[in-house]
Amino acid sequence: MSIADPEYLLHRGWMTHALKLAQAAGDAGEVPVGAVIVDAGGNVLAEGENRKERDKDPTAHAEIIALRAAAKILQNWHLNECTLYVTLEPCPMCAGAIIHSRLKLLVYGVDDTKTGAIRTVINIPDSAASNHRLKVIGGILESTCRQQLQAWFATRRHRRN
């Protein structure tokens, strides 16, 4: 996908929105990951940011929060006309939820070399365990997403020392 491609510009705009959500999570002491779900008409349907620490909930990842909110709004767990934008490649839990939601498209920012379950460490969408073929686009605003995470972790390490 070319930088001049209108589709790339659209994805870039939504990823910028997800980055703002990630910043809010980071400011609240959470790992800065943000997610936004857009409907077929290009409208924001739901948003999420990491809330594990605040909610004391191991499942409170940005993607899960956004998926739950979108399903509630639509009154349907099938999100087959929706796109999920998330700043970090989803983990195995989130990848499973994404598959089960029947999302049309997943767009993520940066690969997660430790727990990435879309393309990096394991590939749940293309595995035999997946009953849904998910279209995936990775690397949208990759360096910005990476820098945001690295800066947050560097600040946390500095505070501990």
TrEMBL record:
InterPro entries: APOBEC/CMP_deaminase_Zn-bd, CMP_dCMP_dom, Cytidine_deaminase-like, MafB19-deam, tRNA_aden_deaminase. Keywords: Hydrolase, Metal-binding, tRNA processing, Zinc. The active site is at residue 63. Its cofactor is Zn(2+). GO terms for biological process: tRNA wobble adenosine to inosine editing. GO terms for molecular function: tRNA-specific adenosine-34 deaminase activity; zinc ion binding. Residues 9-121 form the CMP/dCMP-type deaminase domain. It catalyses: adenosine(34) in tRNA + H2O + H(+) = inosine(34) in tRNA + NH4(+). Its EC number is 3.5.4.33. Binds 1 zinc ion per subunit. Zn(2+) binds at residues 61, 91, 94. Catalyzes the deamination of adenosine to inosine at the wobble position 34 of tRNA(Arg2). Homodimer. Belongs to the cytidine and deoxycytidylate deaminase family. ADAT2 subfamily. This is tRNA-specific adenosine deaminase. It comes from Tolypothrix tenuis PCC 7101.
